[in-house]
Amino acid sequence: IFLVSLPGPLPGQVVVLSHVRLIDGTGRPAIEDASIVIAGGKIRAIGPASRVKTPAGAQVVDLSGKTVMPGMINLHGHVGMVSGLSQDMKHYTRENAVAQLRVYAQYGVTTTTSMGTDHDLIVDIRDQQRRGKLSGARVFTALQGFTTINGYPTHAPGIKGVAQEVATAAQARAWVNKLADRGADVIKMWIDDHHDTFKKIPPAVYRAIISQAHKRGILAFAHLYELDDAKGLVRAGLDVMAHSIRDREVDDELIALLLKNKVTAVATLSREKSTFVYADS
User: Fold this and answer.
1) What angle do CA 248, 253, 255 make, to 5 degrees?
2) SS3 state at 154
3) Dihedrals φ, ψ of 221, to 5°?
4) 208 — phi, psi (to 5°)?
5) Are the beta carbons of 219 and 236 closer than 8 angstroms?
6) pLDDT tens-digit series, residues 188-214
7) Which of 23, 70, 75, 142 has its CA 20 to 30 A from that of 17?
């Protein structure tokens, strides 16, 4: 059991969430009867209700029977391009993107990334969020992701023409700079030949993408499929794997590389699950 004490006079409106079941995200057991004091948009005190003092004049909200937990983070999303069960860039509008960010928030996902299938309007949405003008899950964007000439997903259904196609390391560096200048938060690339049906970004080009992203202070994400590609990308300085390995078993060498380079691995479980569970309407 823990307690964060009140720091003295509190700014702005004070709200107390009382009698909640609190999961703090550390792995410690939940506190079954907790209070959370919020002032000025920040948590100021938290702990068992019997030990947290309610400030004078605070608005008290009794949440008996409810659970409070940290917001979930989705590190591999595609905002704005899905309508119902249809995934197609024809659905990509400001209204659809904003609506989906609000749905995320309603389900407890407070932050998401939009990985490589965005128009510039997502930057305006993100910036309005930061100014407090829009509600919904906080969004970070890769704008358009990278592939090679005729690489995946250049002629995949619904997303034709979305990816940036580059043939050389020089072109890749130039496009990274353009994305950074347009406001991209992260860089996304697709390293996947879809079982020999697409061309794949060669190592010299993906190394240029990663190194230029780092020069611009941006993390590099990669959609990948094969174990050998994962090893090459991690050795090149990849920050985030935006899928798991799917051609064969992960081996000790890759695990050691991931640990050594502190790479984040995103299992993308929800997106893969949706592909199978909702294959038929």
Assistant:
1) 80
2) coil
3) -110, 150
4) -65, -40
5) no
6) 999 999 999 999 999 999 999 999 999
7) 75
The proportion of the chain whose per-residue pLDDT surpasses 90, expressed as a percent, equals 79
CA distance 236 to 202: 12
Q: Averaged over 82-97, what is the pLDDT?
A: 90
Classify each residue of 142-177 as buried b or exposed e, where b means 16 or more C-beta atoms within 10 Å of its C-beta: bbbbbbbeebbbbeeeebeebbbbbeebebbbebbe
Residue 67 structure tokens: 């659970």
Taking the C-alpha atoms of residue 219 and residue 23, their distance in angstroms, rounded to an integer, is 30
In angstroms, rounded to a whole number, what is the distance separating the alpha carbons of residues 133 and 14?
21
State pTM to two decimals: 0.85
Pairing of the two strands 14-22 and 67-68:
parallel
- In sequence order, which ranges of the chain are alpha helices (DSSP H)? 94-106, 121-130, 169-182, 203-215, 227-235, 252-261, 269-277
Q: Please tell me the distance from the alpha carbon of residue 210 to that of residue 236, in angstroms, as a whole number.
A: 7
